[in-house]
């Protein structure tokens, strides 16, 4: 029986047929850290534990029973994020590190965002935002565009933390930072990527019709597709516009935008383009999201997709988790609370931090508990974990 954290990590790693190097790479931590933890000579801090747990597709409490979650640490970091962008238009201190160093950090936080490792982002975001903004203010020539892309990448990672934590005002301010930074780069794809993220503001406000119009205007101003990045950026914006249109009740526009996205996805492999996942799998995930967003009369299509397909490792963990949350809602609406609970458990395995902060997951587990009182033990354990009770 595993009696310390390192032994539990090793047991889970072997069960998933991963080497120590595989785990270090997937968790974005050093190989010596993994080796030291497994030998019991090092104890991972909360952020490192969460990263390892995410890579092993388990909740961190399975590795350390004393673990109390990320929410309080994430929320405690939000004031520092807010302070870092309080005067984003004004140059303050000079950069504390080189542009290549901050670019490498930006790639790291992008990977954390796609893996829904919000605790790691929260710990690093204030300093990274400060450094990235300092570089943009100091940069000239070609470096100005490079620095603008770094600001967008880091602010987008911080926004993921703010938005998922329900700090929607801070999220909207981070979107403003992204829009401002994108204006310093002669890159229409970067502006379109920011428009994609800006949709969160309309989701938070339930201003779906306004969001649909804004995203359609962004599509109209994009240059004609041609390169892989431009095709992927346009396709991703069509996907996001389709979901907003579905929330607005505009089924025809939603399906039209989804068709445009699918046509573009057929020309590309599934991958990460300018920080956004796009490709055939992403379009299928969004087809489920659109069906659920359109309401109960449309969930049949969501269930058809889920019964024959599921996203694999080609899709980021956050998006895989989102797929199962959407499927859970469709199954619950169809009168299948058992299937809905299985889908929520699948979502948790993919990205625990994402599920824990998702309002739909919390709402649905509460309803499932009311419907399935005979399964109170397992349902209550899940509900306590997610904070529904």
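Sequence proposed for the structure above (389 residues):
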């Amino acid at each position: 029986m595993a009696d310390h954290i390192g032994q539990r990590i090793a047991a889970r790693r072997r069960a998933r047929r991963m080497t120590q190097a595989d785990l270090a790479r997937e968790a974005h931590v050093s190989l010596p850290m993994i080796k030291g933890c497994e030998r019991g000579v090092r104890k991972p801090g909360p952020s490192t534990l969460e990263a390892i747990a995410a890579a092993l597709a388990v909740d961190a409490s399975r590795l350390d029973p004393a673990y109390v979650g990320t929410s309080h640490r994430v929320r405690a970091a939000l004031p520092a994020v807010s302070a870092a962008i309080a005067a984003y238009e004004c140059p303050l201190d000079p950069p504390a590190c080189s542009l290549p160093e901050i670019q490498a950090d930006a790639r790291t936080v992008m990977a954390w965002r796609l893996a829904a490792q919000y605790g790691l982002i929260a710990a690093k975001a204030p300093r990274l935002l400060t450094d990235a903004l300092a570089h943009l203010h100091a940069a000239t020539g070609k470096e100005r565009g490079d620095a603008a892309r770094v600001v967008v990448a880091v602010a987008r990672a911080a926004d993921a933390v703010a938005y998922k934590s329900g700090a929607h005002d801070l999220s909207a301010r981070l979107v403003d930072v992204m829009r401002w930074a994108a204006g310093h780069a002669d890159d229409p794809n970067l502006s379109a990527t920011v428009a994609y993220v800006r949709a969160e503001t309309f989701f938070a406000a339930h201003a779906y019709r306004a969001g649909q119009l804004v995203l359609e205007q962004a599509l109209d101003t994009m240059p004609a597709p041609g390169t892989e990045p431009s095709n992927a950026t346009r396709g991703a914006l069509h996907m996001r516009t389709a979901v907003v249109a579905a929330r607005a009740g505009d089924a025809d526009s939603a399906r039209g935008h989804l068709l445009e996205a699918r046509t573009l996805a057929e020309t590309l492999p599934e991958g990460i383009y300018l920080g956004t996942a796009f490709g055939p799998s992403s379009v299928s995930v969004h087809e489920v999201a659109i069906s659920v967003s359109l309401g109960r009369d449309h969930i049949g299509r969501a269930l058809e997709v889920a019964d024959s397909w599921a996203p694999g490792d080609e899709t980021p963990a956050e998006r895989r988790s989102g797929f199962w949350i959407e499927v859970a809602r469709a199954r619950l609406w169809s009168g299948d609370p058992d299937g809905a609970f299985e889908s929520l458990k699948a979502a948790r395995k993919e990205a625990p931090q994402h599920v824990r902060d998702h309002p739909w997951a919390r709402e649905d587990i509460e309803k499932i508990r009311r419907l399935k009182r005979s399964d109170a033990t397992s349902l209550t354990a899940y509900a306590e974990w997610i904070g529904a009770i």
